[in-house]
Amino acid sequence: MKSFIKFISIITFSLAYLLFIVIMMFPSAIDKFPLMKDNKYIILFIIGIINVVALISYLSSLKLKSWVFTAILLTGTVWLFPPLNFTYIGIPFQITYLIVGLIIFINPKMLMKKIII
């Protein structure tokens, strides 16, 4: 189950940021697709929420430092409120979420608690 949640988390993480970057960089190109024209932010919102829930579920199974869980939880709130993505709060939160998320997927041992026996 842990590997399935990690898989879902990686896929939605990638999709959410890919769609977010495409919407920010090429807004007129994305409007050419009939499904995406009026629903691009709703689709981004749904993928982002699935991403946050899956990532928090995956993090709860790891023994990470408390600040990592808090950072993901705090910066993940920007996916719950899509208008925040385009504010002075949303952009640093997105960058922090991206960096911490990438570290979690690439090298989670760097953020784990050190257990002294």
Task: Please summarize what this structure is.
With 117 residues, this protein is an all-alpha fold. The chain is built from 5 helices and no strands. The protein has one domain.
Q: Which stretches are low in confidence, meaning pLDDT under 50 for 5 or more residues running?
A: none
Mean pLDDT across residues = 82
Work out the number of β strands.
0
Secondary-structure element sequence? HHHHH
Total discrete domains: 1
Q: C-alpha Rg, in Å?
A: 15 Å
Shape: globular
Distance between the termini: 29 Å
The helix tally amounts to 5
Share of helix, binned: over 70%
Largest sheet: none
| Strand proportion | under 5%
Which structural class fits the helix and strand makeup? mainly alpha
Could you explain the architecture of this structure?
This protein is an all-alpha fold. The protein has one domain. It has 5 helices and no strands. α1 packs antiparallel against α3, α3 packs antiparallel against α4 and α4 crosses α5. The radius of gyration is 15 Å and the shape is globular. It starts with a helix and ends in an 11-residue tail after the last helix.
What are the main properties of this structure?
membrane, mainly alpha, transmembrane, 117 residues, globular, 5 helices
Spell out the blueprint of helices and strands.
Elements lengths: L1 H24 L1 H4 L3 H28 L4 H15 L9 H17 L11
Helix pairs in contact: 1-3, 3-4, 4-5
Keywords: Membrane, Transmembrane, Transmembrane helix
